[in-house]
Amino acid sequence: MDAFARCFLLLFAQLAAGGYASLAVPPFHEIGRGFFKSSAAIYLGAAAAALGGEVALALRASQVAGWRWFEIAAMAAFASAAACYLASLWGEGMVWRARAFAATLFSAAFALAVRAEGYRLAGPVSLESLGYPIAFGLSALVLGFATAGMMLGHWYLVEPGLSVEPLLRILRAFVTAVTAQVGFASLFLLLLWLGGTPQTSERVAALFAEHRTLLLVRIALGPLAATVLAAMIGRTLRVPQTMAATGLFYIATLAAFVGEMLGRFLLFRTSLPL
Hints:
Order of helices and strands: HHHHHHHHH
Number of strands: 0
Distance between the termini: 21 Å
Helix content: over 70%
């Protein structure tokens, strides 16, 4: 009964996971630490929202499968590691900060992989057991790099003399993530249709027969819009005009969120990670 709510709570978990991954892109010692503190705090809030929502749904349900509690434990481990990393940003212990960041990335990937296993319908040794975690991770990176670009753009108001290169790095990472997401989703759907279980092949066929319009809207408002906006951001940064690029990153972030929300709705309707 709570499947719909869980699909959208997944969006917060993916934002948090992708957000922390995006913090590895800009050079730590060239940007003020305040950027990393504020960004890490926002992503920790997203992780806490996902964890709190999952706990609330589990406590409200009359019966909860054991796997759900494992998902909650994995998400709690991620949120705890993220909190440790945020705390480390106020100190000077480089080793402690590096270890906390590595633990955050590892626990984020593990939490998404655990969540992904809860959506597949095939057995543990199948295309789905490998493809679902990858699809969830790519969605997380798209959300994370989009929001990171928007937030880093604002940091140029604090450090107006900052080189444009960090923002270009985020832009390149965002384009790579969107491209990888589209390419993998296309290949994965083809493999599921040709080599998946009969039930999986039926779901793929139903996607194009019953949810074709929703899929087209998801593509148009998600990766297609993001690609066009990324090209505009790139041209703007060649001027360079960071504030205009930040405004375009706002729209790109909106496109990423709308696209991923539609993707989570398709996940709810078809159990396919789009």
